[in-house]
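One-letter codes give the sequence; the integers encode the fold. A sample entry reads:
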Amino acid sequence: MKKIIIAITGATGAIYGTRLLEILQTVDDVETHLVLSNAGALTAQYELGMDKQAIAALADVVHSPKDIGATLSSGSFITHGMVIAPCSMKTLGCIANGIADNLVSRAADVILKERRKLILMVRETPFNLVHLRNMTTLSEMGAIIAPPVPAFYTRPTSIDDIVNHTVGRVLDTLDISNIDCVKRWQGIK
């Protein structure tokens, strides 16, 4: 069983975290662990009309962002990886600077120290120098910086097409590719 942590923070783009959870529900050998920050819950309510309970229902296990003693805060808890979708610049800065003051940043810190996959779907534009330096720092530590940038070669016809393709590429990074939401490049014909 692959245990995957999905964290949803307060940046715009809560749909990415919820879509990851929805898709992972269909994958038999995956157990999802959700950490939903308070700001993430507010953003999801505004953007998607989903409350905490609706989002929690998409996960196998739910952890409070305040529970710094949760299983996720220990390297002895074996995970396949962690995706922060979306990842706010505050969260990015905390992780880059070793500030583990909540379960999202602590779990990310553990993922990094254990050399597991940490994927950050950073949401901000344009980036300022601090954002870029924090991303560079985390990339140097092994994190994967994966801003949700749409692929137009897929000829998307809806927001769902764009979100599904981006989420599918993130799942590819976690070696979960037995899903049907990614249109693979076939070359120009």
Notes: The first strand starts at residue 2 and ends at 8. The chain has seven helices and six strands. Residues 111 and 182 are 26 Å apart (CA to CA). The first helix runs from residue 14 to 24.
